[in-house]
Amino acid sequence: MTLALVHDWLNQLGGAEDVLVEFHSLFPRAPIYTSIYAPDKTLPEMQQWDIRPNWLDRLPGIHDHHQIYLPFYPLGFASTDLRDYDLVLSNKSGFCHGVKTRMDAIHICYCLAPTRYVWNPDAYLAQEGLNPTVGLALRPILSALRRWDYAAAQRVTHFIAISTEIQQRIRRYYHRESDIICPPVDTSRFSPNKKAPEPFFLSLGRLIPYKRIDLAIQACNQIGAKLMIAGDGRDRDRLEALAGPTIEFLGRVSDADAEDLMARCQAFIFPGLEDFGITPLQAQAAGRPVIAFGAGGALDTVLPGETGEFFPEQTTESLASALVAFKPDGYEPAACRANAKRFSVQRFHLELSNYIKQASIEGASSPARLLT
Fold it and tell me: What is the mean pLDDT of residues 232-238?
């Protein structure tokens, strides 16, 4: 079967791009259709791939400020003609599932999330630290985008969700059923150091508002616990202003330093609401437990009492109570690592390959799995 890959945009690196790397690993000869491609902002090896951006790539300044062109992405992908392909695999958090396919083709959408700024704009603006009045100005446009997004979702043959949280959103917004295949996690990078944990908590990732690192800082301030924060981002100045004497900012760290910190910490703190979340599994692969907000993707990746604990409310008091009750010696590194390995790259390859094979056998003639 002829196969094409589709990705929303290639001007940054994150979890979506990690998934695309594994798509390409499975299907190295498949072309990758996208809206924009900025080689200097992505992995160097991608320059050897067959990447085909559409006309949006020529718009001024779009590589640096792709969000301002929000209303144009549906047009860009609707004009991306993939009718020459028997099977299309899209990697979607935006509008890339709206590409043009044949009626008898199979379109499998790996859904990282239904388009956040379309279906839940207030939460998205809050996460990005933007003024809520922006949402009011965009309301007429968002209404049209929702209609387009919903219609495009009805043309997809099969949906794959990355977590239970995303499966529920696909059902709520698109009225479609889906199967869950969790994203790939490079668990081989991380391993326990076979030493007693050191008395500090760890946060690692981009310092942006929706990650809620402020909760970790305020909770550790409150109980006098040491917190090491690895990573950088636009929220750093605000977070540093909140920090007390037990908080240390490390900035961006190397892969080797990240692996070392994960293995040495007494626990990894994950206070945000995420669609999935890779870093909690990296910590568990290093043999360390996770203290996470009990919602979103963490519900699929953390086993309370075995590989970590949940705090029930996204407040300083709730997290502080969990940190006070935490017993660093109460978790087996082997159990943490065994749980993380359930989400390995090899597992992802096997599950996705088998899914595609089964979908190909069933063919595009099978009815779409609508919510009943």
Answer: 91
